[in-house]
């Protein structure tokens, strides 16, 4: 049977959605043996122009409306396995949108993390203020001075900067008071491949999300043996 159609809510920021798309294709080849065009799952990327969600000017009601619209647009196009390529957007997810077809990223972390200690989550100030990740698993956030540096790095990534980002992110990771660090903003995932020199265990949720989406797309679409 053909894999289930995958739908990605992107746009927050746009390159994070593209990164998830790329990982889906790469892992489809490596883990599921796809090499012919027809082997791969159909992937729909809705790079939605979301309103501001990182400053005091954010409008939660508007963001909830936009997120609901972006998810339903994918469903209308036939997507059966959905995910939001942004941690922060989960703060604005309406309860009626938490359907079985949606893989909830922070909840996925809570279900699949197997750590011996409490991890440090590097995320946006919005997610920190709402204690987004703490709703799903035990974790800690960086002290405020370090959070300011994380916010600055995220802002630079959104502006398209790449020079010295990995170096500055490594500096933050090494000063975090935890042996395991979660890249709790998908913008940071864009530089996950450049963090191998860290002495900490660095966890990329976007990679976990890609694997879970493919698991649902391929394996859950197979008929059980008679």
From TrEMBL:
Domain of life: Bacteria
Enzyme class label: isomerase
The keyword Isomerase appears for this protein: yes
Keyword Isomerase: yes
Classification via Pfam families: Asp_Glu_race
Protein keywords: Isomerase
GO molecular function: aspartate racemase activity
Position of the signal peptide: none
Listed EC numbers: 5.1.1.13
Stored Gene3D superfamilies: 3.40.50.1860
Protein name: Aspartate racemase
Species in which this protein is naturally found: Candidatus Criblamydia sequanensis CRIB-18
């Amino acid at each position: 049977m053909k894999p289930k159609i995958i739908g990605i809510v992107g746009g927050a920021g746009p390159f994070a959605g593209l990164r998830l798309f790329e990982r889906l294709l790469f892992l489809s080849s490596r883990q599921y043996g796809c090499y012919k065009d027809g082997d791969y799952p159909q992937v729909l990327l809705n790079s939605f122009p979301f309103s501001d969600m990182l400053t005091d000017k954010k409008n939660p009601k508007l963001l909830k409306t936009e997120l609901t619209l972006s998810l339903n647009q994918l469903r209308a196009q036939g997507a059966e396995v959905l995910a939001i390529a942004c941690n922060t957007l989960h703060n604005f997810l309406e309860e009626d949108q938490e359907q079985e077809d949606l893989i909830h990223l922070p909840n996925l972390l809570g279900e699949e993390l197997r750590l011996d200690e409490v991890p440090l989550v590097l995320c946006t100030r919005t997610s920190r203020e709402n204690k987004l990740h703490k709703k799903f698993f035990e974790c800690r956030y960086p002290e405020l001075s370090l959070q300011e540096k994380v916010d600055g790095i995220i802002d630079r990534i959104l502006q398209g900067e790449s020079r010295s980002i990995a170096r500055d992110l490594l500096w933050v990771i090494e000063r975090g008071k935890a042996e395991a660090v979660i890249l709790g903003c998908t913008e940071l995932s864009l530089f996950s491949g450049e963090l191998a020199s860290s002495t900490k265990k660095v966890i990329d949720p976007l990679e976990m999300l890609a694997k879970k989406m493919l698991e649902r797309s391929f394996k859950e679409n197979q008929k059980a043996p008679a």
